[in-house]
Amino acid sequence: MLKRLGRYDVPMAHVSAAERRPQLIKAAIDLMTREGVAAGSTRAIAAELGVAQATVHYTFGTKEDLYRAVMEQLTQELLAQVEHGAPTDAGFEETVVALAAALWRTVRERPTSYQLLTELSMFALRAPSLQAALQSHYREVTAVTTKLITEAAERADHELVQPAETIARFFLAGFDGLTLQHLSLPDQEAEQAGLQALVSTVVAMASGRLDLVSVP
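The line above is the sequence of TetR family transcriptional regulator; the predicted structure tokens follow.
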């Protein structure tokens, strides 16, 4: 293949689809983190990497397929942060505190990544071809959080009054809310108080110190 540069024809080294795939995912993440999901056309993503637009379609098929790969990549990065932040030798309450603190550090240090994931999630709600990717994201995050809570309880011989998945879903719902508040209207003092309240409520829920009200 020849790439025209001015009056010269320069041969381009062939790059396999397997090699090109992570490059395009990174280019898409870089572009959409900087300019938003709406800017993530295949043409713009190709230009970000410096390849032909056809390369994107050859590697992924459609824009939605590339978006799905981006969501999967962001999900795996988030899960790695969750698992890395969980201690392996602490009690139940200490584990929840450490997990929340580690996750919150990533929100404050990498807010644009969370913003992109939020934008992609909203986009996926109206894109039938991305519904499975969105559901997979939430299932995986919930499953890993449930596993960490279960392991922490077993390690500390702490009996969970509520199912681990219920606790995990509540924690993630509260954390998502705090993250959106941070992205929309940052307030360090209020956010810290909210995070402490969330952790305290999660621990109380798990320990039976919080009565849940039935909702019809």
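Note on the example: The chain has two domains: 1-61, 63-207. The first helix runs from residue 17 to 35.
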